[in-house]
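Q: Fold this one first, please.
A: Sequence and structure below.
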Amino acid sequence: MRATYNIPSNKRLAWQLVPAADWVRDVVPALSLFLHVESLALCDQAPAGSAACPTDIGILYLPLEGVVDASAERQRLQCEITKVEAEIGKAAGKLSSETFVNNAPPAVVAEYRQRQQDWLSRLAELQSALRALG
């Protein structure tokens, strides 16, 4: 989430966690140290205006108010979405060309398919981040 919202890695933030299991409650102090957080509070539901990150220990939430400039972040995410959509289009264009698919080495075609999947995953992440901003 730090990368998605362009938050410096050394900035200590207040996070919230909906734990996936009871044992997670016992290790919150250790998790706080490992995650380098200002605070890690347990909660039962998603806090309003927060970005979510599902993990094995539960769902981590980062309340965005006061952490990011929502307007500037929306604009930045929109620009990045436009760039990612262009990359998806390039890969789709190559893969829709019978000439390319039939004549290119199989490894190259596989690389373009993987590239397209990677860009689609990135697009989903960016759209999710944009929705979290409201």
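Q: Good. Now the second chain.
A: Here it is, same layout.
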Amino acid sequence: MTPLANFARFVLLWIAVFVAAFLGLGWWAIAIVGALGVVYWAFVVRGVEERKAKALEKLASTLMASEQKLADAIQLRLCALTSRRLVVAATSSRVILIERPLLGGFTMKDYQWKDLHDATLSENLLPNLFGSRLTFAIRRDGQEQVEGVVLADGLEQRVASTLYTAAQEQEQAWEEKRRVRTMEEARASSGGITLGGYPGNGGTAGVSTLDELERAKKLLDSGVISDVEFNEIKSKILSKQVF
């Protein structure tokens, strides 16, 4: 359910309670409802900045010594009217979500960057009030199937954009790491890059230049070698001038 829908449901609930109290029990019941409203204001609305600072302190206490915090955010109050606000952080190694029950304590979930894919940032209706939504797909390393989605809703626009940028940078970095690892595994499985027929490569004599070029092209197409390596190998093959 969107933050705006939650807000509307919350307001309608209070109106329904007020109307029911007025119709059924009279003014003294309305006074009780009003008192409950004051209690709600005292425990939820008053002292927002102080509680926000404490939440961020709790987040800082969960970081490892080697971790660098890239960005952090706390849910906007209008998006968490019946619960304590979610705390979100992006570090150099993971995304952290801290959920805080009403009666104290906290539950922390963390997700490694290598398992997070397809970061998406979207604005909620009335973004100045209800912020933005940040989502990630979870896909364990080596698996194609998406296991689930990490959802952080109702984040301040500016901070959500910073978290999204960090996610994009980390996703690109891990894609490059996977590409390099796949290349190294392919090289290892093929016994290394050894094209027969040119000096110093340990290949087999008598292989034609055309065969060597075709083999190099296959290695390039499969991602085993890069464009630079392909051009270097091609130059060595052609420099023999054996046709």
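Q: Anything worth noting on the second one?
A: The chain has three domains: 3-45, 48-186, 191-239.
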